[in-house]
Design a protein that fits this description.
Helices cover 8% and strands 28% of the residues. It has helices spanning 33-37, 256-273, and strands spanning 52-57, 69-72, 88-89, 111-118, 129-136, 142-152, 164-168, 183-187, 190-194, 202-210, 214-218, 225-229, 242-246. It is globular, with a radius of gyration of 18 Å. It has one domain (33-273). The protein has two helices and 13 strands; from the N terminus they run αβββββββββββββα.
């Protein structure tokens, strides 16, 4: 069955023990930008973010010190319905099809893949982020699904501890070998995870850098680079966009560098105003 967003026993909107199947064709579909603003995402699916994408601010202001983010394809990487089923034009030249959620640009070769949405009113799960991904249908309509959530593990927290926990939506096709089947946590300079049949978290990646020069995600012996982010574009109107590249040998899902960047920016804001 589909996950129920109103499930009272799940602080993350879903129960990882449940299963996800396909979408319901009778649900509300987003056909234009006006509908999108009032569209409540209630369905769930596994994450399909690619191994390279662009991360940018959705707005230039933060709510409760946290920004919302847009994840888009790179200019030189094409996404199609056949290969992705989650692509939508971000930059349109027609005023009738323009979108206000993307960066200001005249470019036409990028697709919007999803969002990192901050939920500042979720008081029982502090620092909460909801990951929404676009699903684009052949009939020209688009809908969104929730693919992961992240938050602090307790109500009382300072800096990076207690850890920030990331949970991915799984399906009945997900196996214990799939990266999304594990639970992940961010600690200071480390990505750790706990997978099925494991009794504790273990470090899988060492993180170096910061939001401004970019992050590099290393193997624990620092002999291999799993992922990295580029220097943000500080040009006015480009919403601090930066590219993210993930190696296929990475021990974490492709979404992890984006979420790590979001929490680093959040903690930087908290320190700046404390």
């Amino acid at each position: 069955m589909l996950f129920n967003s109103n499930e009272p026993n799940s602080p993350y909107y879903y129960d990882p023990k449940d299963e996800v199947i396909g979408f319901n064709e009778e649900k509300l579909l987003i056909k234009n930008d006006a509908e999108k603003r009032f569209y409540k995402v209630t369905e769930y699916d596994i994450s399909k973010f690619p191994f390279q994408y662009q991360l940018s601010l959705r707005y230039l202001y933060a709510t409760s010190n946290r920004y919302d983010y847009v994840i888009s394809s790179l200019h030189d990487h094409e996404f199609t319905l056949v290969s992705n089923l989650n692509a939508r034009d971000v930059y349109q030249t027609s005023n009738n099809n323009s979108t206000t959620d993307s960066n200001n640009s005249n470019e036409t070769d990028q697709t919007e893949l999803g969002f990192l949405i901050s939920r500042s009113l979720r008081l029982l799960t502090p620092g909460f982020y909801e990951v929404q991904e676009d699903r684009y249908l052949p009939n020209g309509t688009m809908y969104r699904v929730i693919t992961a959530t992240a938050s602090y593990t307790t109500l009382l927290y300072t800096s990076w501890g207690p850890p920030i926990t990331i949970k991915f939506v799984t399906s009945n096709q997900t196996t214990s070998n799939d990266l999304i089947s594990c639970e992940y946590q961010f600690t200071w300079t480390f990505i750790v995870n706990e997978c099925k049949y494991e009794s504790e978290f273990s470090a899988v990646s060492y993180v170096n850098g910061s939001s401004s020069p970019g992050f590099t995600f290393y193997s624990m012996d620092e002999n291999e680079i799993y992922a990295y982010t580029t220097i943000p574009d500080l040009t006015v109107g480009n919403f601090f966009r930066r590219n993210t590249y993930i190696n296929h040998t990475s021990p974490f899902p492709t979404l992890i560098p984006a979420l790590y960047t979001a929490y680093y920016d959040y903690l930087t804001n908290v320190r700046s105003y404390s």
